[in-house]
Amino acid sequence: MERILVSACLMGQRVRYDGAAKTSGDALLATWRDEGRLVPFCPEVEGGLPVPRPAAEIEGGAGGAAVLAGAARVLTADGTDVTPAFLAGAQSALAVARSFGARVAILKEGSPSCGSLTIYDGTFRGSRLPGAGVTTALLELHGISVFTEDHIADAAVRLRELC
Q1: 79-116 core/surface letters (b: 16 or more CB in 10 A; e: else)
Q2: Average pLDDT, the chain
Q3: CB of 72 within 8 A of CB of 60?
Q4: Is 86 within 8 Å of 74 (Cβ atoms)?
Q5: Whole-model pTM?
Q6: What pLDDT does residue 68 have?
């Protein structure tokens, strides 16, 4: 059985920066949960950040790959550098995915950790840019396919390809 790494907030866990969840009502995700295929994970919490916590964005909207390369940082609105926690969380996510043999992840879009299509631009004004978060960039670098909560059907296609 192919396991799937999934953002804990999508599974109803109150781990987001604002202390909330973003529970997904997707039927396919519910089926996979019932089958025991899902591995819920929050890289920001696992990286040592509290709940709630200040919102963070990647400076300049540079993207997760730039953070991994040391060319950009993850900052809160007051300029606090939380990059080490984001890097630690990404490494933990990769370790957990590997330990379960997960080759697919469904992660929360827009997050500086989990975004896979867009991230916030670093200005804290609500503007997004194309890009990936730190965890997504690391997982993809290691061959794990990442999908958003709005592309679960695409994740199902990828799972079928892997079997």
Answers
A1: eeebbebbbbbbbbbbebbeebebbbbbbbbebbbbbb
A2: 97
A3: yes
A4: yes
A5: 0.97
A6: 98
Q: What is the mean pLDDT of residues 42-51?
A: 98
Residue 161: count of CB within 10 angstroms of its CB: 10
Query: Token digits for 116?
Result: 């896979």
Q: What is the pLDDT of residues 90-116, one digit of tens each?
A: 999 999 999 999 999 999 999 999 999
Whose CA is closest to 121, among 75, 70, 159?
75
- Rounded Cα distance between 124 and 98, Å, is 33
Three-state DSSP string of the chain: CCCEEEEHHHHCCCCCCCCCCCCCCCHHHHHHHHCCCEEEECHHHHCCCCCCCCCEEEHHHCCHHHHHCCCCCEEECCCCECHHHHHHHHHHHHHHHHHHCCCEEEECCECCCCCCCEEECCCCCCCEEECCCHHHHHHHHCCCEEEECCCHHHHHHHHHHHC
pLDDT of residue 147: 98
